[in-house]
Amino acid sequence: MPLSFDWPFPERPTRSYNALSTVTIGLVGTISRIWMKYFTSVRIANGDTLLNAVLHRDPKRALVTATNHFSCLDEPTLIGATMPYRVLWNRQRMRWALGADDIVFTVRKHQIFFSLGRTIPIKRGDGVYQRSMDFALEKINKGDWVHIFPEGKINMTKELIRLKWGVGRLIAEANICPLVIPFYHLGMDSVLPNVEPYRPKMGQKVSIFIGEPLIFDDLVNKMKKENRSLQEIRKAVTDVIQNEFAKLKSKCEELHRQHLAGDASSSSSPKI
């Protein structure tokens, strides 16, 4: 089914549109960073890995970040927590995010706001070949950063669940396989509980464990030479990320236990 509203991104953005988008992204990122830095206790393991990928990767190779989804505030606060201001205010470096159309694009003003903030509306249940996924793939082919929650929903149980194959498509069908960095986080559902009245709480603890970069060139090229179907390739790619999620979950749980206990010895945050 198509989106219930007009496509929110102009085909040829004007200078004023780009300027307004920069301000929207920068202000939201700044507010998120201030909240996470001064009103939340955040511990990040391997933060330099993500920052280096954003700042120093090959400009022809896009970046895809994939993480678990436990709270409505995961995006944009996780980006605010991990990125410095020089990235938050640089529209060309900042991420594109995928957001559910029935959650964040429900009214016209939200459609305008979130599209200015580089959020792509996804229609859940509409498959990997919907227009929004095509648009995200276009951004990857231009070398941009795309952030995705491959669980496809807020995971209320926090158990490992099957990842959606959309993330596999964005990697397998890209002109150049993007650099993929998975990461896992805990504590965001204490910052914004998933129960009414849905008000952010101060003084909570959040832990973020950044995984090692993944490059899928060899796997994708091998499967293409074997004449494997696109469905098989995106499943294989998604399986690799699924396995990384399982590893990162255990590592982040240990990091979070130490954080809650007040042990500062395991912290590794980016130099920002």
Briefly, what is this?
InterPro entries: Plipid/glycerol_acylTrfase, Tafazzin. By secondary structure, this protein is of the alpha/beta class.
SSE order and pairing:
Elements: H1 15-38, E1 40-45, H2 47-56, E2 63-67, H3 74-82, H4 85-88, E3 96-100, H5 101-104, H6 108-116, E4 119-122, H7 131-141, E5 145-148, H8 166-172, E6 179-186, H9 188-191, E7 204-210, H10 217-225, H11 230-261
Parallel strand pairs: 1-7, 2-5, 2-6, 3-4, 3-5
Antiparallel strand pairs: 6-7
What average pLDDT do the residues reach?
95
Low-pLDDT residue intervals, each spanning 5 or more residues: 266-272
Measured distance between first and last alpha carbons: 43 Å
Tell me the name of the CATH class: Alpha Beta
**How many separate domains make up the residues?**
1
Strand content: 5-15%
- Tell me the name of the CATH homologous superfamily: Glycerol-3-phosphate (1)-acyltransferase
Class of secondary structure makeup: alpha/beta
The total count of strands amounts to 7
Sheet having the most strands: 7 strands, mixed
Number of helices: 11
Strand order of the largest sheet: 1-7-6-2-5-3-4
What helical percentage do the residues reach? 40-55%
Report the radius of gyration as a whole number of Å: 18 Å
* Secondary-structure element string: HEHEHHEHHEHEHEHEHH
CATH architecture: 3-Layer(aba) Sandwich
CATH topology-level fold name: Glycerol-3-phosphate (1)-acyltransferase
Shape: globular
Membrane topology: Peripheral membrane protein
Domain Phospholipid/glycerol acyltransferase: 63-188
Main location: mitochondrion
GO molecular function: 1-acylglycerophosphocholine O-acyltransferase activity
